[in-house]
# Entry
Amino acid sequence: MKKRFHLYILLSLSLFCLSVSATENPPIETEIIEIEAVDETLIPKEKESQKKDSSQYQTTGQWEFALSIGYGQVESIIGNVDDYELYLLPSISYYGENFFLDNTTIGYTLFENSDLYIDLVGRLNDDGIYFKLDDFGVFTALGIQPPLRDPRIQPEDVERDISYLAGVAVNYTIGDFDIRSGYYHDVTDVHNGYEIDVSISYGLMITDQWSLGMRGSAIHKSKRLLNYYYGTRPEEALLPAFSYQPNSSGTNYAFSIDSEYQINSSWSWQLNYRRTFLAHEITDNEIISTDEPDTYFLGIKYRF
# Structure
């Protein structure tokens, strides 16, 4: 009930803001519009496919810096831990002819035509972010919730390193739909695990200023990755009964909605919502308190 109420309030505020903007601002020439996600997985984005309407994407060869100010929450997945509040979301991106950078994701396009492209991609593994509690400013910037420890786990004995993944991603465009699949392996020798993800995205321009994007995705995580991040070793638990090791790989599923309303060339309203469905190999751990964490953000973005 709490989630539905928050989402109702969020959508109501968004529609109100958009109606005010539409009244106060006459139609303007279509500007660059970028759809972003808060996450975690929200995660850093890879290069999106080239649409027929090129005005939706930033100019090739140009850096883009932006800062979003507003309010949002990332629901904690750890028991007895409050949800994490978001106020600022900075972003940086660059898209060249082949090389691209989007926050902590980097890539190089090996092949591209009107419907298909293949990328080499490096990206930060979001599972490791949860275990680095020293710098909360980094978590805020990335839009990721760093959960505190459950009291059944001894904080001084728990240590997990952040890993970086690299691999190959293939994107195919069918009309307004983008189908993307990728394989990413640990290249930092942290857990030597891997992820395989598949996503389907749909984007459209509701008006010349208003964009809407929807995405459904599945991320399969290897047993080594899950054991490293979500396994609780006997020496880390206060009691042996609280130790846990996933016995297989697992798959997370997610659905997200991202929208922007362009006020002018620099300012735009921003709305992001994401729900993740955690694999039971993760939720079977006693310290995990929810199966379906939500993330949302509503604010205004400024492009420098």
The CA atoms of residues 59 and 95 lie 8 Å apart. Confidence is low (pLDDT under 50) at residues 7-11, 13-46, 48-56, 133-157.
